[in-house]
Amino acid sequence: MRNSSYILVIAMLLLSFSACNKGSDKIAGSWERFDDESSGTVVKVEKVGDAYEGKITHVSGNLSELGFEEGDVKWKEIAPDTNEKKRYSGKDLIKAIDNNNQVAKTEYVDIYFEFLSNDIMQVLDSSGAQGGTSRPQKWRRIN
Length: 143
Hints:
Blueprint: H1 2-23, E1 29-34, E2 42-48, E3 51-58, H2 62-65, E4 73-80, E5 87-97, E6 103-115, E7 120-125, E8 137-141
Antiparallel strand pairs: 1-2, 1-8, 2-3, 3-4, 4-5, 5-6, 6-7, 7-8
């Protein structure tokens, strides 16, 4: 009887550790932008070292006009926010084009990823608020 109790406790511990690890991969997967002029753009987020990064796999809407291309690292240094369980922090690639429609400037700016559900997130500027300097980007998980 005691042996089966030990086995049950060990099995429960293994299951709880497994569930914890899956939670940290919440941001991993392919995400499609929707509800704005860049709708249809797809970013695939994968673990790279201790953090996550998202590469563009399909460019759509005004992002193609701004010089974004497949393979660009759109998001980098993504990590869970230590203060907010529903949020990750990271950096977003920003591009500016010149009068000849050539990319004149690229930089990474601080952002937050906030989960509205398991399959919907919004990307917020560094103020972390919807009322910040830019409108939040909405993304839905497609796999």
